[in-house]
Predict the structure.
Amino acid sequence: MTDNPTFDRIQGEIDGNDVVLFMKGNPMFPQCGFSAAVSQVLSTLQVKFKGVDVLEDMEIRDGIKQFSNWPTIPQLYVKGEFVGGCDIVREMAETGELEKLFEEKAVATAE
Amino acid sequence: MSVQSTIEQKIQDALKPEFLEVINESHMHNVPPGSESHFKVIIVSPDFAPLGRVQRHQAVNGILADELAGPVHALSMETHTAPEWEQRGGQRLQSPQCHGGSKADQ
């Protein structure tokens, strides 16, 4: 627990889900091209993830930026670790590093 | 000075890049013509060598903190060292088109 209730909620999402994407919109209907791109990468790898729509919650929207020291949305967390935003996720998907990360962290991808 | 020139200048001063390209991608988004709100930067600098991807981006975000807190709504970046850039053959990723959701932020 911290003395910041928003940080606690964010931490709760990250602890409660192997793969969490803080995004604009939801995985079915992303509201931003950058969120859509990451969502699509995860779907292609058939990774189950929890999408947290920051547009629905101003506290999370502002809080996540401080929490991660990262000024933009989307933000991907895997097993509690901040992986990065859209550029990093796409770069890692392209080089195969993302799939490797999921393997290493024992996150199920395509069967 | 335009936002674009400011970004170029600040990165130039801070990272002494071997290659720097600052692209205004605002036209790909739901903003008025001539806007300087969405940028992509490609930076090749030896300073990145000891840093992981997240740290590299945090470094650039730190250099451009004023711009990100102000006129710049989205900053896409590629951060490489010279050997990494060479390995990629100088090839960059395409930025995604906006889906319109960011409009509410303006």
Notes: Chain B touches chain A through 21 residues (CB under 8 Å). The CA atoms of residues 13 and 63 of chain B lie 10 Å apart. DSSP finds four helices and three strands in chain B. Residues 3-89 of chain B form a domain with the GMP Synthetase; Chain A, domain 3 fold (CATH 3.30.300.90).
